[in-house]
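In this supplementary section we document a worked example of the pipeline. Step one takes a protein sequence of length 168 as its only input; no multiple sequence alignment statistics are reported here. Step two produces a three-dimensional model, which step three serialises into structure tokens for compact storage. The input and output of this example are shown verbatim.
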Amino acid sequence: MKLFFIAGTQLPFPRMDEAIVKLLENNDQAFNITYQSGQREDFSTKNLMQYKLMNEDLFMETLLDADLIIAHAGVGTLLECIENKKPVLMFPRLAKLGEHRNDHQLSTAKKIQEIFQIPYLLTVKDLINYIQNRDLRPEIGFYFRQMMHNRTELQKNLHNSIKELLSR
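The serialised model returned by step three reads:
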């Protein structure tokens, strides 16, 4: 399975690093991971391709080729996944862990889950369990089928939610 982890660009994201290392430690499921790590120092291991930053073409090529995206809860990244109907798990950065200045990503994740039924996870253990212990194939299209059911209303709700978050 091809996994694409996206940490964002502003600060290191040690929880995401830890999740990748743990997934690759016992890689019975043959995960091939691409990681846009932002500020993370390079580390390399089998089945991992890491980039601090990717140009737009490589980013989109990787996103479109991935079986599952695990992303910080950045609005731009999430919109790319939604617009391209890519299965995504949100792993928001948390202020209490020094991963961001405030908890706007947690607020974003909660609202995106409410609107699109896209799951978010907060601990490395929960993220690893979700990826390793679920057959993701049947549910891959679930939230996109729901979204397409009333796309116009959902787009309006999403835009309103983003405006509300940005106005805080």
